[in-house]
Known about the structure:
Layout: H1 12-15, H2 20-27, H3 31-36, H4 51-59, H5 67-79, H6 85-94, H7 105-115, H8 117-130, E1 134-139, H9 152-168, E2 176-182, E3 187-195, E4 199-205, E5 208-214, E6 217-225, E7 230-234, H10 240-255, H11 270-275, E8 288-299, E9 307-311, H12 315-321, E10 331-341, E11 348-353, E12 357-360, H13 366-376, H14 387-402
Antiparallel strand pairs: 1-7, 1-12, 2-3, 3-6, 4-5, 6-7, 8-9, 8-10, 10-11, 11-12
Helix pairs in contact: 2-7, 5-7, 5-8, 6-7, 7-8, 9-10
Amino acid sequence: MATYSLNKFAQPDILKKIKDENLLQFLSPYTSYLEGRGFKPKVNGSAQIDYDLLCRILMQPTEGIPPDMVDALFFVHEVADDEMYDELLEMAKTGNVTVPADCTPADLAVLLWLKDPELIKKSHAEALMMKPKSFNSFQSEKGKGKKPNLSSGNVSHLESLMDVWFEQNKRGKGCKVLSFDMDYENKVYFLVRHGMPFKREGKIEDGETGSVFYRPEFHDVVIYDIDSNELQIFNKSGGKKERAMYLSAFGQVFFNDTEYFPNEDKFTLQPLLDDGVNSLSCLDIDGLAEVRLTEVQLLFRGPYNDRTILRSKDIFKSLEGRKRNFPDYGTLVAASFQVKFDSSSKPRTVKIKTPNIASFDRKEDAHIIEQWMKARGFIKPQDVVTDEDTDEVVTYVAEAAVA
C-alpha cells in the first residue's frame, strides 16, 4: 500500500472535477467500507454526491480502509493535473480509451485507472525516476558498455537476488523492478520499489491511544549508462551496503560478474588545485558557455568532522582581486559550479562531492556536464580491461586446468 495522506485528495473542489458517474464507478469496489462509514455510493435525493461526507471519510480514515482504495486514490491524485494532461491523452490512445470533449485531467486519470491501473502506475513510475538529481556513479573497467537484456527472466532474477539482501537486512521481501529504455540518452533506467525496516508510531482513534506498526515503502533509481559503461545509483536510504548490493546484483544479472562495477572512486577535485581557473575552461565543449566555481568545502582530519566552506559568486575572481591563493589546507571534498549553457540565459548549478556523487539541476544536463568533467580531469580515468587482457586471463585459466 502506498504511504499517502488522503487529505491531498479529500477536498470537494478536487472531487468535483470528476464526473459523478466516473467517481461512483471508481468508488464502487469499496462500497462495503464506504457504507460502513455512512456514505452511500450513489447520487442522493438532490441528484448530487455528498462530497462533504466523502471528504470527511477520506480525511479521517479508519483502520479498516481497503489498501487498494488508498493506492487507487494515491495514483490518480499523482497524475491528475494540467501538466500531465497531454501525457494522459497519449496513454488513452495506447489503451483505446474514449476521451469525451469535456474530460478534465482528473476525469481522464479516473477513466484510465478504470481501464487499466497499470497505465497510471507506469506513468507514475516514470515520474519518480525523473525526481532524483544526485547519483553515486560507478564505472566499469571491463571495456565498452552494451545494452542489457531486459527479459522478464532477468528482471525476476534481479528481484530475487535483491530480495535476499532486503530480507536479511530487515526490509522484507517483494521488491519490484521496473525498467525503461531511454534510447535518446543511450541509458536504461530502473525503478526499484522495496520496503524498509518496520516502524511503530502512536495514533489516536475514537479518543483512545494506540500504535501503528508498518513497513515504509521506498523507491530507488538505478541508471545504466551504456556509453560510459557505468551504473548510477540513487538509494533514498543513502546506505553504502545497499549500494554495494545493487552493484553486485546488476553486475551478476546483466554481465555475469558480481564485480563488474567496482566500488571505487569516480570523481576528483584535484584539477582545482593543479590547474586553478584553467580547470573551468569549457571552450572545447559544445553547448557550454561558461563555468564558475562558487563553493568549495574542505574537511580536516580529527574526530569532530571539522569543515571550512568558502562561498562566492566567483571564487577564483574573488581570490585574484584580494591577491589570495586557492586554499591548500584540509582535504577538498566538495565543490559547486554555476554552469551557463548556450541554450539558456540563466546558469544552473552542478555539484561534485567526492568520491562518487554528482548533482545536476536538470538530468538533461548530465551528458554535456560529464563531457566537460572528463575533459578537465574531474572524472578519474579508468584502467580499462581490453579484450586482449581478457583473452590472457582465459588462456591462463585453461593452461592451469590442463596442468
